[in-house]
Write a structure and sequence with these properties.
Blueprint lengths: L1 H29 L2 E9 L4 H15 L7 E6 L8 E8 L11 H11 L3 E12 L15 E9 L4 H18 L5 E5 L9 E7 L13 H8 L3 H12 E10 L4
Antiparallel strand pairs: 1-3, 1-4, 2-3, 2-8, 4-6, 5-7, 5-8, 6-7
């Protein structure tokens, strides 16, 4: 009997361990992350810069996990900066990223001469569980991005708020938003990015009443105002920018 009991315990433990490993592998295989690098071209060299980056991407970053594109910041203090984006990829993929002499020499010879300044380099992981694709097109022209500073110790409250917002979006059946988590926070107010995709500036003038109605249908009258209090309690600052997507 003791042997049988020990066998059952060992079997259960093995099943639990296997399930845990499989789940971890699935999470590792399915997540998507983008590496982004900010660049400011020299004045008067913007077109040459964009053309050089396009040629480099076509040669070394045309497809797969290392596919790259270039966006342009249109609003805020970083207006005029460009953002080079590679991915979606995983950290494991980075061990095999293009990094040979041909790649480096092409960048140094053709792209760098047009760059006045390099800025931040960050890794943003897409949070599928908290995002709502909704009616977003596969190739939007613009994105309205909120970089959010989440208060220390308040990640759980922020997450609960976003989960409820997603439920309201799903109930309403309109709109879209994506959540990205910064993988290396620096205490600079860029912990989470909330991204809304759109195709025309006219969409910024549309007033569809927001999600308050759908939110309160789910969580009850007055719940939206209470949720906004949770938002204020869990966040410090927001830096909002509009990016033009895929300029090259």
């Amino acid at each position: 009997m003791k042997t049988t009991t020990s066998f059952i315990v060992m079997l259960v433990f093995t099943i639990m361990l296997t399930t845990s490993v499989v789940t971890a592998q699935e999470e590792k295989e399915t997540y998507g992350m983008a590496e982004i690098t900010y660049m400011l071209p020299k004045i008067g060299m913007e077109k040459a810069f964009v053309d050089a980056v396009k040629a480099h991407n076509d040669k070394f970053h045309k497809e797969g996990v290392f596919k790259a594109s270039l966006d342009n910041i249109l609003t805020g203090k970083e207006t005029g900066w460009y953002v080079w984006i590679m991915g979606p990829c995983t950290f494991s993929d980075l061990d095999n990223r293009p990094n040979d002499d041909a790649h480096s020499n092409d960048w140094d010879k053709n792209v760098s001469p047009n760059v006045a300044k390099y800025g931040r380099n960050e890794f943003w992981r897409y949070n599928k569980k908290l995002s709502y694709k909704g009616d977003a097109s596969d190739s939007p022209k613009y994105e309205n991005i909120w970089f959010v500073d989440v208060k220390r110790g308040q990640n759980y409250k922020f997450k609960e708020f976003i989960e409820k917002v997603k439920a309201a979006y799903e109930k309403k059946g309109e709109g879209n938003f994506s959540i990205y988590n910064n993988q290396f926070t620096e205490g600079n107010g860029r912990d989470v990015a909330i991204v809304w995709a759109f195709d025309t500036w006219a969409e910024m003038d549309e007033d569809d009443g927001g999600i308050k109605g759908a939110f309160e249908e789910i969580y009850g009258e007055g719940s939206w105002n209470n949720a906004l209090k949770d938002w204020e309690a869990s966040t410090e600052t927001i830096n909002s920018q509009v990016w033009r997507i895929g300029v090259n």
